[in-house]
């Protein structure tokens, strides 16, 4: 089944095609511009939803959903904090990784060094997040988003692989710890 980003991408292309076939070139330009921006915002919103859900699930699995540590994580580290998790203009996710301690930072840095794919996926994730911030904070309608739909979708697909790996990386890291170190 196609995900919502793929559906939006197809719908935007179909609308642009209909407008082009009906010689509505001005409207085609408008839909392409707004469509790229909506697509970018949709990607960023999706990633925020998945990462906040997965980080909360990690805490719930580690401590139990009713454990005080899970509640503290939710109220002080997760709710309305997502955009503070990353240095969007940096080429790495070390700020995010550091939320889980210096050992996790080293663990993830080693993973990134061992995988050019993971490095690219993180960079694409951060690039989408930075573009989202620029779009939101610099007048959405007039901001000149230079990426075309193909570039946004390509970054989304790469970034999606990073986002979907975070919960597993946390669990893998916890397994490497000595019980006394936890």
Describe the structure.
It is built from 7 helices and no strands. Helix 5 crosses helix 6 and helix 6 crosses helix 7.
Give descriptors for this structure.
182 residues, mainly alpha, elongated
How many β-strand stretches? 0
Distance between the termini: 40 Å
SS-based structural class?
A: mainly alpha
Estimate the helix proportion, in percent: over 70%
| Radius of gyration from the alpha-carbon trace, in angstroms | 19 Å
- Low-pLDDT parts are none
**Major sheet summary line:** none
Overall shape: it is elongated
Quickly count the helices.
7
Mean of residue pLDDT values: 94
- Along the chain, the helix and strand elements come as HHHHHHH
Strand content bin = under 5%
Write the layout of secondary structure elements.
Layout: H1 4-21, H2 25-63, H3 68-78, H4 94-98, H5 102-114, H6 116-137, H7 149-176
Helix pairs in contact: 1-2, 2-3, 2-6, 2-7, 5-6, 6-7
């Amino acid at each position: 089944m196609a995900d919502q980003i793929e559906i939006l991408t197809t719908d935007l292309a179909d609308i642009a095609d209909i407008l082009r076939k009906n010689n509505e070139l001005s409207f085609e330009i408008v839909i392409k511009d707004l469509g790229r921006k909506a697509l970018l915002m949709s990607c960023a919103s999706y990633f925020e939803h998945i990462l906040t859900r997965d980080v909360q699930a990690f805490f719930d699995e580690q401590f139990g959903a009713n454990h005080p540590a899970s509640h503290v994580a939710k109220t002080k580290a997760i709710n309305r904090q997502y955009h503070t998790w990353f240095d969007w203009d940096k080429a790495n996710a070390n700020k995010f990784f550091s939320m889980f301690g210096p050992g996790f930072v080293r663990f993830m840095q080693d993973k990134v060094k061992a995988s050019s794919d993971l490095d690219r996926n993180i960079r694409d994730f951060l690039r989408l997040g930075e573009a989202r911030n620029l779009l939101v904070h610099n007048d959405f309608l007039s901001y000149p988003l230079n990426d075309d739909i193909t570039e946004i979708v390509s970054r989304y697909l790469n970034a999606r692989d990073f986002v979907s790996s975070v919960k597993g990386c946390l669990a893998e890291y916890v397994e490497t710890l000595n019980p006394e170190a936890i």
